[in-house]
Each structure stands twice: as C-alpha cells, then as structure tokens.
Amino acid sequence: MKIAWVHKLLGKHSKKFYGILAGILTAAVAGSGVGYHVIAASGTADQTEEDTQIDETDGQEDGSFSGTGTTQVKTESQLPDFSVNAVTMTVEEVYVEAGSTVAEGDALFKIDDESMADAKVYYEDAISDAETALQSAKIDFESGVLEAESELSSTKLAADTAQDTYDAAVSELSVKTSEAQEAYDEAVEEISDYQDAIDNGTYYTQVGINEKQAAVDTAQATLTEKQTQLSDAQSSSQAAKETYAVDMANLKTQIEAGASYTDLAALADQLAADYTAVQEAADALSQSQTEAESANSALQLANQTFQKAVEEYNTKVTEANEKIAELTDELEELSDACDEAERNETTAQPALLQQYEEAVLEGKYADTEYEASLENLQSAVDEAQDTLDELKEQQSALLAIEDGVVCADRDGTLASVTYEAGDTLIKNTAFASYYDLDTILISVEVSQNNIAKLAVGDTVQVQISGSRMGAIDGTVYSIASEKTSGGSMSNVTYAVIVAVDNTDGTLTTGVQATVKFETQATGATEMEETKTAGKTETIGASETEEAGGKTE
Fold first, then answer.
1. Is the pTM above the cut of 0.70?
2. Are the C-beta atoms of residues 430 and 548 closer than 8 Å to each other?
3. Which stretches of 9-141 are assigned E, i.e. beta strand?
4. In angstroms, rounded to a whole number, what is the distance separating the alpha carbons of residues 209 and 307?
5. pLDDT, tens digit, for every residue of 402-436?
6. Who's near 381: CB < 8 A, 6+ residues apart?
7. Is 446 within 8 Å of 494 (Cβ atoms)?
8. C-alpha torsion angle, residues 314, 319, 320, 325 (rounded to 10)
9. For residues 409 and 94, what is the distance between their CA atoms, to the nearest angstrom?
10. Residues 417, 101 contacting (CB under 8 angstroms)
C-alpha cells in the first residue's frame, strides 16, 4: 500500500523532478546530519527555502518552546561490508536509478572484473599479514607474560629488600666518606714521615754511611801498615843482597890470595848463610808485596762501597722530596674528595629515601601493574584477532558479490543510487539509499539558547498541518553538532531532527508541522550537561555522507 503510494506520488513528476529532489536531498543532509528525502512538496523552491528559516516560539513559563518544519521521508543506506578504497574499484555498469522499486537480490550495479580481482588479492595479502601479526602478538603475549612475571618478582623483591637496600646504600656513603678522610690523613702522615726521615738522618743510617766510612778508614790504615812493612821488607832484602855480594867478593879475593882451606871453608859457610838470608828476605818481600796489594784492593772496595752508599742516600733523599711534592699536590684533590663524599652523604640520603619509598609503593601495586600488563598484552592479541576476523568478514562479503554485481539488500524504493558507470567507489559512501516510509522526519532549527535543553531520545509533541489526529508523539532523532546559521549568539541555530512513527501510512510528506519541545527550566550547569549528553548520540558527518548519493 505504501509503496504504491510512493509510486503514485513519484509518477506525477518527470525525470527533471529527480534532479530537483537530489538538490533538496543534498541541502537536507548537509544541514541536518540525517539521511532523508523530500518526496513531495507544495509550493516553489523559494517556499522550501522559507521553511528552513528560524520559526521558533520562545519558551513558556514551564520551559517549553516550539519550532516548525516540513514532513519528509526517512531514508536508510546500504553500506558496503568491505573496504572500497583498499584498491581502486570502478563501476562498470549501473542497472537501476533513483525511484526504482527493487526486491532483495536485484542487481544495482556491477564493479569491473579487474577491480574485483585486485580487491581479492588485497584481502588475501591483508589476511596473510593479519595472521602473521596475530601470531606475532601471541608470541609477544607469551614473552610478555614471562617478562611481566619477572618484573613482578623483581618489584616485589625490591620492595621486600627496600629497607636493607636503603641501609646498605647509606652505609656505603658513610664508608666512602670515611675512606676519603682516611686517604687524606694517610697522605698527610706520609708527607710527615718522609720529611722526618730526611731531617732525622734515617736514610743516612739506612744505607750505613758511618759504617762504610769506618771501613774505608780501616782499609786505609791497613794499607799504610802494609806499605810500611813492604818498605821494611824491601830494605831487608836489599841489605841481605848487599851482604851476600860483599861476602862473595871476599871469598873470591881469599881464593885468589891462596887463603887456607879452613879460612875458605868459614867464608863458604858465611856465604851460604848470606844466601839463605837473601832467600828469606826475598820471601818476606814477596809476602809484603802481596799483603800491600791486598790492602790496596780492600781500600778500593771500601771506597766503592762508600760511594755507592752515598749515591743511595742521595737517591733516597731525592725520592723522598719528590714524594713529598707529589703528595702535597694530591692533598688538594684528596681534600676535595673528602668534601664531595660528605656532600654526597648529606644530599643523597633524600634520594635514597625516595627510592626506598618508591620501591615499597611499587611493591604495593605490583600485582595491579602485573594485571594491567597482561590486559595490555591480551588486548594486543584481541585487536590482532579482531582485525583478522574483520578482514575475513570483509573478504567473505566481497566474495559474496558474484561476478562483481552489487545487489539490493532489501525490498523497497530507491531514494538514490550513488554511482554512475565509470565512477570509483568512495570510502564511507553508501551504495544506495532506500525510502523508509515507516518513519517521517521533521527538521527544526533550534536556537543556541534552547539547544542545551534537548537530548536525543526526548519525547516531543508534533502537530501536522491539516491533520485531524491532533498532536502526536515524536522523538528527538538527532541533534546537529555544528551550527547551521547565524553569526552571533542572538541568531545561531542548530538543526534538530524529530522522528514520527508512520507504520500505519497515514502521514504524508511536504506538509508543515509544528514541534513542541517540553523541557524543564534549568540552570546553566544542568543545561550544559544535558547538551553534552544529547550530542553524544547525534549522527556524524560520515553517516550523512553514506546516506547521500546521485539521483537521476
């Protein structure tokens, strides 16, 4: 009955009417944020424009107010169940036009074979990637659980040992301060020791200068004695030789003089004694020479030992002076180190205390953090699974389009067919839209002062011009989030769409209607909260785009 009524209404108009209808549709969709079409109207285009002007009766004492609009038929969109912009999808042929009556399964238009083939390849690749991503998410989940468990254990352990850790850190700071002071004191003491060693002749004693000097003196005395003994031995040897020579000459003389045997024998005995004395003197001289040479060598050795001791002493004194200079230079650094250690001990304790408190606090909430980590990990897996499931659903929807022919998903009359042959499918755009004769929509412009009083779902009273039914119930269907007119607070308006049930088919379109919004007077804060709550359910721009389309 209803479809026949629409055909009867549409049959009165030429193809040119559908072009006018498309213009009205575009204005209505852009202004209200809801998909609907005017399928019948009385009056001129100027009158239609006049219907969109603000016609709001200011609120009564009970807070109610009214506005006027024109009854229009609601439309429902047939949206694609797969991505139309993953690849370029081109319409090859269109089989219907706006106003056509179709049954579920009737062909609307055909997507060319190349586009379908590209889309199928896209989904095969996308599903493969999604399966890989899901597997990766599962692996990440497993490794993440282990990491979270390790973090949980580590955090709890840190909390359990926080006091010991704090005490140990504080103790370590104290130890470092003590060590720095000890190093400084040791350097001062070492400088003092080196200086005392120099001043007190410690190094002189260590190398044995006195002993070695005494050894030189002893060796010198021994050499002098041995040289005297050698001189005496030389004199004795010379005297013995001279005596022997005299006695030898005397013997020769006596022999020549014919001395008696007895005298010669006596002289021979004396000569023998002289020879023995010469031999003994020679032996004594040799011994003295040996002893003198030995004494001389001993003196040289003693001198060498003494000189070495002097050199060692000088070296020790030089090294001590160098060490004193080095330690003196280090004292400033050691002093700074002491100061720094003391500062650290003072300033680091608050940070250590904070770390202690953080460790305890983290331990307190470790289980909560652990659960949150697991939820995040599971969320990643779920998202990957949802993505895969959605891609498979979209792939199934694509594959369900046999030979690339998009078919009607319901029985009804087409309000619009979005595409023409050669067009490219567009994201968030409906394939087609259908008249929903069970619902009549009325667009009313509401001032900014009153818009905050409304919420989607509010019941309103509708009075349709010429109707004998009197006021009937309607429902706030949507509230525009953007203003549609006005430039100042005094004339800014928002489009409010009111829906009226028409399942009995008694209502017609293109008729003026008055909508009464019954609200309670509220304070500024309550009004703002009501406005916020209402706007959360308004129809967005993407839905209005999906409802739009081309008409013929």
1. no
2. yes
3. 36-37, 56-57, 65-78, 91-94, 101-102, 107-111
4. 9
5. 999 999 999 999 999 999 999 999 998 999 999 99
6. 134, 137, 138, 141
7. yes
8. 130
9. 16
10. no
Encode pLDDT of 73-102 as tens digits: 999 999 999 999 899 999 999 999 999 999
> What are the residues whose beta carbons fall under 8 Å from the beta carbon of 528, sequence distance 6 or more?
452
Q: Closest by alpha carbon to 492, among 448, 533, 427?
A: 448
Surface-to-core class of residue 139, CB atoms within 10 Å of its CB (0-12 exposed, 13-18 middle, 19+ buried): exposed
Report the C-alpha gap between 492 and 515 in whole angstroms. 19
CA nearest to 35, candidates 80, 77, 2, 6: 77
Report helix, strand and coil shares of the chain as percent, to nearest 5: 60, 15, 25
Closest CA to 252 of 262, 270, 264, 238: 264
The candidate with the shortest Cα–Cα distance to 501, out of 536, 473, 476, is 473
Q: What are phi and psi of 463, to 5 degrees?
A: -115, 110
Q: CA 412, CA 507: separation in Å to the nearest integer? A: 18
Tokens of 14: 């030429």
The Cα-based distances of 473 to 92, 457, 462, 502, 517 in angstroms read 46, 12, 6, 11, 11
DSSP states of 153-194:
HHHHHHHHTHHHHHHHHHHHHHHHHHHHHHHHHHHHHHHHHH
Contacts of residues 304-312 at CB distance under 8 Å and 24 or more positions apart, as own/partner, are 305/212, 305/215, 306/209, 306/212, 306/213, 306/215, 306/216, 309/207, 309/208, 309/209, 309/212, 310/207, 310/209, 312/207
Cα 74 from Cα 433, distance rounded (Å):
10
